[in-house]
Predict the structure.
Amino acid sequence: MTEKHLSSQFDSELNAVSSRVMELGGMVESQISQAVYALAQFDTDAADRVIETEARVNAMEIEIDRELSSIIARRQPTARDLRLLIAISKTTANLERVGDEANKIARMVKSIIESGAARALPSTDLRVAADLASGLLRKALDAFARLDTAAALSILKDDDLIDKEFDGFVRKLVTYMMEDPRTISASLDLLFLAKAIERIGDHAKNIAEFIIYIVKGADVRHTSMQDIESALQ
């Protein structure tokens, strides 16, 4: 077996596992979309669809992890190829966790529907944040497919918008609870939802950081935006 054939086969395996990651990403995106719809429309059926997808997401994450372990054991990749495989593994784990957050949202929406108490509270603000988080994840997957560091940098900056939405929403909920203690239970439910949405944004940010790691070999976690921009020049 020639070196060229080995390289070609390795590339084929990388492409195959990358395609699986994008397939997982599409499945998780669908979960988020259904969860946001469930929240917007107080739709129990949409929430149930999110919950039903969770098992498939978990199974695919395990399958991809096994494929990656097999590739590493057989090919013993070095340098950028190894960084790519490590980043794919971490991206897969983050996508599975996004699915977990969507599942939490769906289950909490069902609880809110059953109680009926949260309809008078500012759930519309949550939908805005959820749309931001969903859009950020979509951008992260697109950037990962192209290994686009400029798009990754933009995602890191956009994550601040979700954090600001979360902080503003928390302040609003605190005001509601102070003015009417009867809203405390429902407000805490919404706070739980808001935190899950914020975490989706955090996972999209993590994927963006993995892109920079693959391309530049730089770990930019806990790094200032100025230093990240310098690393990408």
Summary: DSSP finds seven helices and no strands in the chain. Helices lie at 3-41, 44-75, 79-115, 123-146, 149-179, 184-216, 225-231. The radius of gyration is 20 Å. Confidence is low (pLDDT under 50) at residues 1-6.
